[in-house]
Amino acid sequence: MEVELQLYTNRYQRFSPDQGAPVRTTVGKPRFPLPYDLAGFARLLAPTYGMLRMQEGPYRHIYLERLEAAGVDLISEQFAEIADAAGSDRLVLLCFCDLNVPPPENWCHRRMFAAWWEDQTGHEVRELDRRRETPAATLF
Known about the structure:
The protein is α/β, with parallel strands linked by helices. It has one domain (6-127).
């Protein structure tokens, strides 16, 4: 019997362990101490170092091309491996971006991934805050 995996997004600084298993999606590790251990690294979701200096339009184009190249099946396999190692059916995809800043600075690859994933699979990937969210966004 396959477990239904739930995906969420958040930023490193707002994550709390009751939200699920924290997963790094950034090209670099946090340079500040985390009060929790990361459950894994979703390498297929991480941008490249070169992309970090890009404006949103070119970044989005390249990032979505990278997701398309990897595909849903390979990304799902990576999520399943992380979830299995973490012993959790809730993965919280983390990065550094603060989405509470005003436009045009409030874009982020974690939300680009969430929109792409929903478009590809029909499964919503919600952004969390400090409190635990309960709605399921299932992967498979």
